[in-house]
Amino acid sequence: MSASTADLALQTVMYNALVAAGGLTALLGSGADSIFDAVPDGAMLPFVVIGDNELTLGELKTGERWQGKVTVDVRTQQGEGPGTPQPPLEQAKLILEQVQAVVTDSLAPAGYVIIVLSVDFLGADVDPGDHKSVRGRVTYNLDMVEG
């Protein structure tokens, strides 16, 4: 299969798993409508962005293996979000915890099997430009095979 087919399968399963996660969507500004692959103008904070997937084709004795990275970004801001607003750094960490729970429990791209999934980076920091918003990110390394 092509890289675009593998990439689309991975993007689709990540999006579907994240929008179906009630614990995650309850923390976002517009619920499930706050999960994007490209952030539209005027998006309500906090939100989650499924970043670019980077997949490369490798070879196994038994067939093709796709190796790559998947990134999920979180944006929060002081005074934004449902319920009693939490400090934005705490809010970003709570959202990232929910993202991790979904990704580690729910990824099964159609036509593929993930054989390795590990966290490459996990963190959140205050935006140095405005000192009010927080950017969080988790990046996963993964290997998947057709299956």
Helix content: 25-40%
Helix- and strand-based class? Answer: alpha+beta
Main sheet attributes: strand count, strand direction, barrel closure: 5 strands, mixed
Q: What is the number of E strands?
A: 5
Task: Determine the CATH topology.
Answer: STM4215-like
Helix and strand element order: HHEEEHEE
Whole-angstrom Rg: 16 Å
Q: What is the arithmetic mean of pLDDT?
A: 87
Query: If classified by CATH, what would the architecture be?
Result: 2-Layer Sandwich
What's the CATH C level?
Answer: Alpha Beta
Number of domains: 1
Estimate the global geometry from the Cα principal axes. Answer: elongated
How many DSSP helices? 3
DSSP strand (E) fraction?
Answer: 35-45%
Distance between the termini: 11 Å
Biggest β-sheet: strands ordered side by side in the sheet: 1-2-3-5-4
pLDDT < 50 runs, ≥5 residues: none
Search tags:
five-stranded mixed beta sheet; single chain; alpha+beta; STM4215-like; elongated; 147 residues
Structure write-up:
The chain is α+β, with helices and mostly antiparallel strands. The chain has one domain (3-146): STM4215-like (2-Layer Sandwich), CATH 3.30.2000.30. It contains three helices and five strands, in the order ααβββαββ. A five-stranded mixed β-sheet has the order 1-2-3-5-4, covered by helices on one side. A hairpin with a 2-residue loop joins β2 (47-60) and β3 (63-77). It is elongated. It starts with a helix and ends with a strand.
